Amino acid sequence: MTSADTTPEDGEPRRRRPWLLVVPLILFVALAGVFLVRLVSGDDPSKIPSALIGKSAPATTLPPLPGLMHDGAPVPGLDPADFQGRVTLVNVFASWCAPCRVEHHMLVTLSEDEGVRLVGIDYKDETENALRFLGTFGNPFDAVGVDADGRAAIEWGVYGVPETFVVGPDGKIRYKFVGPLDDEALDGAFGAAIAAAKADAAKAGAAGS
Description:
alpha/beta, two-stranded antiparallel ribbon
């Protein structure tokens, strides 16, 4: 008698049910099918919705990056009060983040737009490395706050660097982009959110004049 057979009391051998061996294969094929459908449908896993959309930006104050200078003056840290009355792009980055290097030239381009203010949150980074990173690729930020322990990133609901938030002139978060910025992002919903926020800022400025 082989290990595949058993002999019940009636003396007839009982064989293993072969369909039990097929069940794992069926489950695998089903999961693969779901993944394929999502891939073909064009769903972008980087477009993760944020629970903070439409809410005020976290009141997180962060110290400046020591030694970071611009035009002979120290670059300030993150002050939530500076969100009011202007359009702010908050970019969470780190010198050790490879995608941050890929997107950095986009941030430099955005910094040339006088209608927006760029603020960086330096996530779990070493000061020397962050200074070297910005010194090599250029500093597009008007302010850089140091998030040494990652607490600010948690308050902002960050999944991973890089991420970029559009904050309107009312201090509320308008949009969240996950991953490295590119031309497609600027031509898509991210760029549209910036344009809408700038329009609101212009209206508010006209009303207050």
